[in-house]
Amino acid sequence: MNNMERIKLETKGIQLTDDELIIYLQENGLEPQSQYQASNPESQKAVYTTTLSILESLANNPENYKNIKLDDLSISQFSENIQKRIYHLTRKIRAMKTESRNTDTFMLYL
Predict the structure, then answer these.
(1) Is the pTM value of this prediction over 0.85?
(2) In the chain, what are the helix, strand and coil shares in percent, each to the nearest 5?
């Protein structure tokens, strides 16, 4: 599995072109066609950081905040849900061990 496929796996349901994904990957130090290294903490952190960048961009789109009503189903808490996902992903990234920060402590407060 390459880095592009890994990001697509992490962001299922988010429609982005391959060119957009390549930009996100390169901004976070990943080459799209390079092999994803699941055992490398730096690679994992870069994938999660790329996913975070994508979610933050998605959260900046005001079109996503409209209420959608289909029959008796209402989708209206996009803002809350994406902010929760961003928060949890940020905490996960900060808690990860990396080569540059090889300690068992992490930032408890954001």
Answers:
(1) no
(2) 55, 5, 40
H or E element that contains 8:
helix 3-10
Give the model's pLDDT for residue 100: 57
The 8-class DSSP code of residue 60 comes to T
Q: What tens digit of pLDDT does each residue of 49-87 get?
A: 999 999 999 888 777 666 666 666 666 677 778 889 999
Task: Report the greatest alpha carbon distance in the chain.
Answer: 52
What does DSSP say about strands 73-75 and 68-70: parallel, antiparallel, or unpaired? antiparallel
pLDDT at 61 (0 to 100): 78
d(CA 100, CA 42): 9
- Cα-based distances in Å from 104 to 24, 31, 39, 94: 29, 29, 18, 11
Tokens of 5: 């496929």
d(CA 35, CA 78): 33
DSSP H or E run through 82: helix 78-95
Residue written as tokens 């901004």?
27
